[in-house]
Design brief:
It contains three helices and five strands. The protein is α+β, with helices and mostly antiparallel strands and 132 residues long. The protein has a five-stranded mixed β-sheet with strand order 1-5-4-3-2.
Length: 132
């Protein structure tokens, strides 16, 4: 059952398997990323969130390093009424700091899915309500 957002809070949506991916992380990492997403829902930016390069404005990466492992969650705040979590992953790049191409492509694909979900569930409903 979905909980009703409080005033000023954007709804949070998980794209693809991003929620299951996050649930596989260590508890401390889940808590930190969850806190950062909560901050995003109220229109703020958590200190561990930084712009995600490659998709333009409104896409952020939450970075958490824990026990010599790097964990990431990528989300977008581009939409007026919703925050979409696009991907959560443990960074295991074979080439230093660069994010694996597979992860970059998945984020791009899920951002497109988020756009479509928002269009159908929010923009079309808002347009229909205005016409009444």
């Amino acid at each position: 059952m979905a909980r009703t957002p409080v005033p000023g809070e954007k709804r949070l949506f998980w794209v693809g398997s991003s929620h299951e991916e996050l649930l596989s992380f260590p508890e401390r990492v889940k808590d930190e990323i969850g806190w950062a997403l909560g901050v995003a829902q109220f229109g703020e930016k958590h200190p561990s969130a930084k712009p995600w390069k490659g998709e333009g404005q409104g896409v952020f990466e939450i970075v958490d390093d824990y026990e010599a492992n790097a964990y990431r969650a990528v989300y977008t705040v581009r939409f007026e009424l919703a925050v979409y979590v696009l991907h959560a992953f443990q960074k295991k790049s074979p080439k230093g700091i660069r994010t694996a191409k597979r992860d970059v492509e998945l984020i791009h694909k899920r951002l497109q899915a988020a756009r479509e979900h928002y269009r159908i569930n929010f923009e079309e409903k808002a347009s229909a309500a205005k016409k009444k």
